[in-house]
């Protein structure tokens, strides 16, 4: 586990500039070493491009952590409701989103009704809704008894894997469940979490709209969901953290998209936490 100290405001800019100053040097070294080892340039250029994009994404993570800690230094901190921040950074275009893990669907702790509502809120209906709901429940339960529209081990035999018969271990695993195609997975995964830390109730004020629909049991048409959708779209001011809430020990996903303007792009998601508060440094809990 890596721990990072949040720099004071007078030093934050220097830290970021130093981080990015290494991009050109690192790219050149990577280019030279790979060219010498492989004797070719096309692959080396691609590797160097990816290395620079990776370093830019790292810089975006540091920038997000610094801005989340800004409240400790008297500046307005970034919001944690998933809204995009667009930054031009040493020739790279960075799109950064910070998501509150407490504002997501706790996918391994859902009731059967919540599972059904999750798929329904994601746009599934009719017979398919019955099938994907039962298949999900069969995947996570401990037995091998198939529900009326579900799927157990024999239904996956030709695919080379078996149901988990236990909690999901990654959100990517959701795509293995019968009836969950890529579009459905891509609608649910950003709103779901396996990692939300210890104590802490669901947070509607920073929640993903789909998560609000499921965790409050109100569905996608509720006023609360519509208000959150408007806030994220910038049509109204988002609700700040309630008084008494803080970022201390609150898991946050930082999503960074780095683009170099030449069709090179890299996306990275990292879960971080401020275990002692934003002024006491931050730690990486999980990287994708």
Description:
The chain has about 290 residues and is α+β, with helices and mostly antiparallel strands. The chain has 8 helices and 8 strands, in the order βααβββααααβααβββ. It has a 6-stranded antiparallel β-sheet with strand order 1-8-7-6-3-2, covered by helices on one side. It has a two-stranded parallel ribbon with strand order 4-5. α3 packs across α4 (about 125-140) and α3 packs antiparallel against α7. The longest helix has 30 residues, at about 10-40. Residues about 10-15 and about 25-35 have low confidence and may be disordered.
Furnish the topology, listing elements before pairings.
Elements: E1 3-4, H1 9-38, H2 42-68, E2 81-89, E3 92-100, E4 105-106, H3 112-121, H4 126-140, H5 153-156, H6 182-188, E5 192-193, H7 209-215, H8 223-232, E6 252-259, E7 265-273, E8 282-287
Parallel strand pairs: 4-5
Antiparallel strand pairs: 1-8, 2-3, 3-6, 6-7, 7-8
Helix pairs in contact: 1-2, 3-4, 3-7, 7-8
Brief description of this entry?
Keywords: Cell inner membrane, Cell membrane, Membrane, Protein transport, Transmembrane, Transmembrane helix, Transport. The protein is an alpha+beta fold and 288 residues long.
* Structural class by sheet pairing and helices: alpha+beta
Gyration radius over CA? 22 Å
Low confidence ranges: 9-14, 23-34
Order of SSEs: EHHEEEHHHHEHHEEE
CATH topology of the largest domain, by name, is Ribonucleotide Reductase Protein R1, domain 1
CATH class of the largest domain: Mainly Alpha
Tell me roughly what share of residues is in helical segments: 25-40%
Terminal Cα span: 14 Å
Question: In total, how many beta strands?
Answer: 8
Task: Write down the overall mean pLDDT.
Answer: 84
The total domain count is 2
Please indicate the percent range of residues in DSSP E strands (runs of 2 or more). Answer: 15-25%
Strand order of the largest sheet: 1-8-7-6-3-2
């Amino acid at each position: 586990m890596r721990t990072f100290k949040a720099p004071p405001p007078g030093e934050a800019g220097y830290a970021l500039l130093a981080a990015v100053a290494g991009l050109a040097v690192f790219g050149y070294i990577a280019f030279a070493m790979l060219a010498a080892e492989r004797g070719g340039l096309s692959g080396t250029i691609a590797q160097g491009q990816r290395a620079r994009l990776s370093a830019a994404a790292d810089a975006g993570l540091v920038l997000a952590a610094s801005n989340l800690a800004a409240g400790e230094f008297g500046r307005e901190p970034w919001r944690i409701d998933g809204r995009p921040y667009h930054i031009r950074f040493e020739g790279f275009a960075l799109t950064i989103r910070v998501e509150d893990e407490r504002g997501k669907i706790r996918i391994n702790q859902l009731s059967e009704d919540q599972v059904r509502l999750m798929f329904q809120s994601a746009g599934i209906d009719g017979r398919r809704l019955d099938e994907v709901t039962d298949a999900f429940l069969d995947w996570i339960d401990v037995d091998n008894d198939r529900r009326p529209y579900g799927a157990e081990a024999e239904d996956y035999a030709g695919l080379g894997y078996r149901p988990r018969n236990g909690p999901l271990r990654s959100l990517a695993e959701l795509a293995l469940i019968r009836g969950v195609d890529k579009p459905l997975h891509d609608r649910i995964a950003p709103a779901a979490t396996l990692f939300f830390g210890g104590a802490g109730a669901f947070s509607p004020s920073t929640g993903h709209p789909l998560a609000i629909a499921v965790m409050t049991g109100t569905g996608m048409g509720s006023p609360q969901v519509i208000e959150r959708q408007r806030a994220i779209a910038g049509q109204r001011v988002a609700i700040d953290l309630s008084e008494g809430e803080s970022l201390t020990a609150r898991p946050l996903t930082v999503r960074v998209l780095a683009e170099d303007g030449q069709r090179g792009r890299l996306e990275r998601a990292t879960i971080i936490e401020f275990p002692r508060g934003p002024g006491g440094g931050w730690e990486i809990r999980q990287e994708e």
